[in-house]
Amino acid sequence: MSYIGTLIQKTFKRRLGKNVGTLIAISLGVSLMVGVQITITSFASEAIDFFIEAVGEIDIIITGFSFPIQDYQNIIDKIDSSSINYTAINARISQSVAIYNLESGELEKGVSYTGIELDEDPVFDSFYDINGSIISQSELSNIFSNETNIMISDTFAEDLNVTLNSVMKIRVGELNATSLVFDYKTFDVTVVKLVKEEGKGKELGGRTVWTSIDNMRSIVGFGPNECSEISISLSSNHEEFPVSNEYAKEVEDELIELLEGDNVIVIAFRALILETADEVLQDVLLAFNLFGSLIIFSGVLLLVNIQLIQVEDRINQLGILRAIGSRKREIIRMILLESAILGFLGSFLGVAGGYGMSRFLVWQIGKTFFDGEAILQPVVTWGAIGYSLAIGLILAIGAGIFPAIRASRVDVIEVIRGIKKVSRKRAGNVSLAVGIAFILAGISVFTTHLLIFDSFFTANGWNTAVEQWTFMGASAGILLGISILLGYFFSKKIMSNGIGLTFILIAVFMLLLSLPQLTDLRENNKILITLAIVLALGTIIWVGVNLSAVTNFIRNILYRTRMKKGVSLIASKYMTSKAIRSTLTFGIFTLVLTMNIFASVYQSTFAYNTLESVEFLSGGASIFVELDTPVANISLINVEEDLYQVDDSITNVQGINSTLAFIQTDEDVEDLEIPTDFFPSVIDLIYNDTFKTGDDYTFDFIFEQSVTQLNEKYKPAAPESYQREYSHEIWDFFYNRTKFNKEGFIDNVDGLPTVISTSMIFMPGDVFNITNFYGNPTEVIVLATMRLYPFSISSSFPALLITPDLYPFLYLNFALYPKHTKYLVSTNEEFRTGRNSIIAEKIEEFFNGNDSVLIQTEDFVAASATNVWDEMLEIVDFQVRTFDFMQYFVSFGLVVGALGMVIIAVRNVSERRREIGMMRAIGYKKRQIIQSIMIELFILAILGLVMGIVNSVLLGWALARVFDWLLIIPVVRVLIYTGIMIGIALLASIIPGIRASQITPAEAIRYVG
Amino acid sequence: MIDDIIVKTENLHKIYAQDTPMEVHALNGIDIEIKRGEMVGIMGPSGCGKTTLLNLLGGIDQPTSGKIYIENQDISLLTDIDMTNFRLRNIGYIFQLFNLFEFLSALENTVLPLLLTETTRLEAEEEAKMMLRQMGLGDKIYHLPNELSGGEQQRVAVSRALLMSPAIILGDEPTGDLDQDTSTEIMNLFVSINENYKQTFLVVTHSEYIASFCHRIIRIVDGEIVDYGDGRK
Question: I need a surface site. Which of A616, A999, B41, B150 has the fewest CB within 10 A?
Fold first, then answer.
């Protein structure tokens, strides 16, 4: 072994320049991995922080949702005497209010007006004055000595344009204890204290103004022992002593049992937020992880490539070593030891590079996902650094295994005699066993499914990603097995073709036949990204195997150019002679470009089609209006009649009753995609004439999927007239109160009443209970999903539409009935380019402007009027920005790939000094040497580009087919990528090209590597 | 200069690593003349400067001082591009290790120089095929070098050198890697080409046997000519 050590030392010294190249390549590869890892971790942790920022140390909330919790002291006593161990508990009264600075016109809606106990446990944090000092209990007592005094944060005061002693209007609901309804009243409040940006846990539910709980009781008409919420903390410091979601939910269950009959709702709030955040993040993280693994994969290709070069350019030395008696395992050990040393050093540099990459990406995350408000920092822990180093090392060594094995198999005769033996045409004996094993594995998966589910797949067919993955895996097993057997019986070339084609066939087959069967967007994305990877891999393998034919074809094209034919011949043939390395090189670009171009095709197609369909799907509602509370005095204003006077273009105004209810799932509904068995939802009440007059639809909303019996008619690709007809039929079933059973068929005897869903959370056929505050659960079934319902755009809760027969079950809740809080407005303005935004502004003025009757009588409501088209533009813009970010993300792969290409090209040149010397001796000019090096890389880059474009267009086409979208190929972007690719290829080759041209023939032909 | 002198050098010097401790005076005032159609051998012990002289004559290395005339042209005055063009059209190279591109077929290796001229690909390939047939490789034109014997590989190299009808073919130990029978076969091929086409050859060799195929033998020792092979010493 000692001579191996000496050899490594000598080799390292002599090959210093080459090793530096390898080191840089490893660093780049590791940078990608580390960068992706840090970015994903940072995004997840920042996003979670963003979600739970206001929660503080609160775990559980017992709430009456603005309604009073009776005798809360008794509830706290019950909890105290139970087995539940809590750290702190408090009681508050809060109400969502509108606050108005009448002097300057600033209006803030949805502000939490909160009354706190002055001796709240410090676990719920303290208030700090603008100098950062804690405000004591006695000070608070002093501040809130007057019932109308409030305390607000300095930043909120700035937004409202108020300062100390400013007076503002607040609109609060006062509880009428007899009828259990809120009577809305307006009164003045005075700002008496400004506090620093609030401590965590003080500002629950967005922007807040504070008073004492006693003041609040008097303002909202609660009794002395009533509050609206009780907060419970199970840990004084969740960062140091975290509480698991499971434990919090166990406590929630215990509390529900304990407080049965107390008319309260118990929510493990922190767990709910964390789980919801997980759900929300899942899609983004899925895309991050899948795109990230692809980038990492391109990094691995780079590593294998450079390690392969590292071995191949000293094949002579290895041959001599073997000739003088080195054993294969010593050669492997030597190469792996070298890989380990380079991998170790490269990983260190890579961690630094990865940190730099993640800084940029994390900064972009702040801009894209948090509106630039959050200045995010990459989250790097020692554990993550250690992990990255380990992974970098493992990958660097792993990438060295294949080249090391190749090195150990160097044929001594070939090396010593300078000849190349013809390799065996057919695959070896092991392939027979491997091929059969693959086929058997595939068949057994299918058979198992057949036995368990009575079907090749599952009982339900192909409608989940797991089923499709299983199908793909099993089919791939059989096809790969057959390919390997063909290699054993015929030739390795047939085998390799078979492997490449297996991936391509599976991808195309799944794109054509199975993708459209997935009805769930998230499942759809999983499969789509899987297929992108499978397709990219398939094309890389297939083109790599047939590189010779491809380069012959390209050479024939090059022969027609003005370039000397000798240049084209050498470049294309050299590329084919190093097929594995050439394949790895264009493979990097194929992977990265497939992702880049697909992301931009997806982005353009999504944006165009979403916007194109908005007018049709808006059902004629160009503006929607939402009020925070109903107009109290309809003798002052009757919105449905008076709104027409706001603008001559308004053609229709339709009020809708809306309330908040709760969705409770039961055991039958396991696949409902909500993270808890209890979920708030907006319920809109619609009558037979809400959307239509007689048989004419004034607001003609379109449905997507529906319950089983009606869904057969659903054709997203059908013309608009067909979709209208389909939707009108569903409306008829809905208005006629036709009942459907749980299987989705009409059953007016035992069936369930129907509701309409406006979000992806509730899908047709889902069964659940809707219930009110006092709990009268009523089982309903979702009849159909609406494709675009204006109010679901702005709501943070999923909205359901119901008919009046269900309303009595919800009657007590919020007690708004029959007053309207929402209005649909149609105008005769052109949908996209008309004055709808101006009209929306005028509507807001109508409610909240200084001239408004409501303002003048100080009986204001907070109204927001939104132009549907503008709202959709914003949503699409967010999606577009998200994809822009994904492209930044993926582009790092491109940049690193390009740098890797430079290193590979430089190494290629130093490896073929002798050939270049021969070329010069024959009569190749320096210019022609440069050309031959450039053409080689250029062809590889173009191959990657062409495959990237073909794959992306295929994927985009399949996606567009699923949603009946028009496929939009962003030509400019693709041209930019083409330009970048050509630029990279030229730049990457120019330095090694020049180096090559400077090689003097006399010394080069003596060069032996 | 007399017309039938195809190669002439005047006081040719080549010093490697000049002004360094490792300085080597490889050629020390070489004056030679080679006539058109002559087949000349260059002999001498290892390190005497044979290959250096060949490289200078082939224009793939630059002399430290002195002049080289080929076809009456002073090649030491040529720019790199002109020199490359000159090499392409006037010099044919044959090396000891054949120096074929291992990833090109016999035909592709042969046709390369013609593909660097204005000749069309089809014409170039036709000429190359003809040349290979003449060399007795008509049935192996699509074979890769590793599928050919040493003699066959050297015949491919000869075909490549001949294809451009160069003024002179320079052979650097062209049979050094071949057995006696194959060496004889290759040298007979040279002789036959020399006789039939009046092709000038300059062959560097260690072997008296190989040198015996030449019209005359120039002997070099320590960078100086000790015997011109024409009676001059």
Answer: A616
